[in-house]
Amino acid sequence: MSRLLTLLSTVFARKLRNAQFSTMGSNGICVEDIDVFCSENCKIKDRTRVEGILRELIAGGTDRLQVVTDFDHTITKQKLENGQKVLTSFGIFDECKSLPPQFRTESRQLYDKYRPIEVDPCVPMPEKINSMIEWWRLSNELLKGFKFNPTEIDDVAVKFKDALRDGTHELFTQLNRQQVPVLVFSAGLGDSVVSILRHANVLLPNVKVVSNFLQYQDGILNGFQEKFIHAFNKNETALEGTEYYNLVHSRDHVILMGDSLGDAGMADGIPTSSHVLKIGFLFDHMH
Hints:
Belongs to the pyrimidine 5'-nucleotidase family. The chain is an alpha/beta fold.
């Protein structure tokens, strides 16, 4: 699945070179033209629809394109080559040495309670959303009243600068070269996301991170900056009124990548979105 990132670079490189696909003609591109789409690990519900979207994306070129992606277990791998688990953005924060023991304990209790609800496909969406709002509200209260040096996040994050999926650097570099906006939407901790992207040299001028960022008051942690981003409100309506929204709202061709059900709606709110290629990386409930 990680080769899909390289695939996206290849598709648009072909467009820019005016290259011809093997079966180009009246029907345009076919799924069989792209090796990774033929892998047994790649599942496509409607091949004809995917082919149609690919044709539109290629024909529209980079001026109409934007990329919207989750971060944890989408841009990052699940495990390193040595088998070590890749920490999530909040997991990186939890590794910081100066965090009070009580924070670690209570934060873990909240995770154990709400994470199963987040990933359970049988829980109704309204119940999921209410649970996520409650989770972030309680987490926000935990993140208040103690000193914290933000450089500690960098000290941990640098260990995972090589934990991005194969082809990420090439993809981001090419998208930046072609001035294609990349929106990284994360329900995790934005401070960690930015740190990893920066250490991996992919926090390029075309990359915008929308996430939960820490705020401080006189050197003391004071919860999150508004507004809270949880797994099921990650969409571009959160960008209304911002410079980034004005930049991308007319780009109606979207490549969307994520690893959860909530990520599937990250392109919601983009006016006149006509063609959205959704790529999911299976992580939970694999059987």
